[in-house]
Amino acid sequence: PAPHFHWRTLETQARIPILFHTGDDGGEMTTGRGHCVSPAVAAGPLEDDNVVGEILVRLSPEPSSLARALVCKPWGRVAASADFRRLWRDRHGRPPVLGVFDKRMTTLLFTPGLQAPDRIPRERFSLQVCSEAAWNTWCVLGVRQGRVLIMNWTLREFLIYNPFSGERRRVSFPPDLSLPPDEFFDDAYNANGALLWDDEQSPLKLVLVACSGRTRVEARVYSSETGTWGDIISIPEPCRLTSVPVTVVGNRLYCWLRRPVNSILEFNLDSQTLALITRPPRANLKSRNCRIIPGEDGAVGLALLMYPAIELWNRNINSHGVATWVLRKTVILDSIFDLAPSSTGTWRSLVLGYAEDANAILISVYKEMCIRAFTVQLESMQCKRIHGHFLNDVYHPFASFYAAGPSTLQILARGNNDGGAGGGQA
């Protein structure tokens, strides 16, 4: 620096040291924590967006840390940029599980998964989807990449909901799709799907997988770039899907099947082909105790919970194209959960959901009237307790980093004291 400048170490609200320089003009300003800083700081290195970005990206990944550090509008603009969001994801890896979505009659209900100051109020992300008369005409297909995918067969449309901004985008069913409302849950017809997109600048893709009658299973892909649905891809095998959300592994989608027994449906997006693959040779494989997950080396995997053990399986393919399921890891969860044994009964368990973005499963451990829910990150095996009433079979954990911006800051600033209306009505 020039001779008439000297450097001063300050601490921001995010509790990270930052070097400011002050001039000799005698003028000073005060930061949010009461520190006096010269106006010359505005002409210093913190005017450089790259420097600000390098500082902010070193914050912890908890939702409140970034919002508390954005003490001025220029910093907020840096944090809201696409470049910074990519930098943040690259540095912090897997996002935290912010909470859980599930269907409650007419409402997409959000249950917070974090404690203050990171807790997001239930009302902020919950959404009224329909009127009371139409409560049984919609379902949640899944949560991926910061979006909730909802299927409404009365309106014949998909609703894509962004909990952060409140944005709702609608995509109509394929015009030739025959989907009578009274047959949706019938044994002869069921559907599933997934939302795919790389980032906010890339086209959005929506995959629909449906079983029509007892003759075949079909898949179609919608592209926002063309605004149209692609051709039908099908196989003649009769299938029955489940309500378990689709898992995306690389360029393939995997659906858990009720029929054929011991089968998984694979949709290859590159080759536009459907195929049936077998499940691992393991007894008691059910949708209530396992989830399809990404395995090692780009393969598909499976997480099986048989409390107190969790097993991770990998589907390996050799040089001759022969696939074999291999048990690659078993972890005993007793020491992680700290659930003391009791003479009144044994602990049982269910897998309630899977957060693909965080690679974490949502599980319920229960006995008699005692029910506890946890998320388990499948790489680190770190678990976190989630408080709520989880009495159904399928839930949708929501994992994401905060996209900094006015809506995000407003959510965190109001925190648990906010009792306003929720995300509104779809």
TrEMBL record:
The lineage of its organism: Eukaryota, Viridiplantae, Streptophyta, Embryophyta, Tracheophyta. InterPro entries: AT5G49610-like_b-prop, F-box-like_dom_sf. It comes from Aegilops tauschii subsp. strangulata (Goatgrass). It comes from the Eukaryota. Residues 140-348 form the F-box protein AT5G49610-like beta-propeller domain. This is F-box protein AT5G49610-like beta-propeller domain-containing protein.
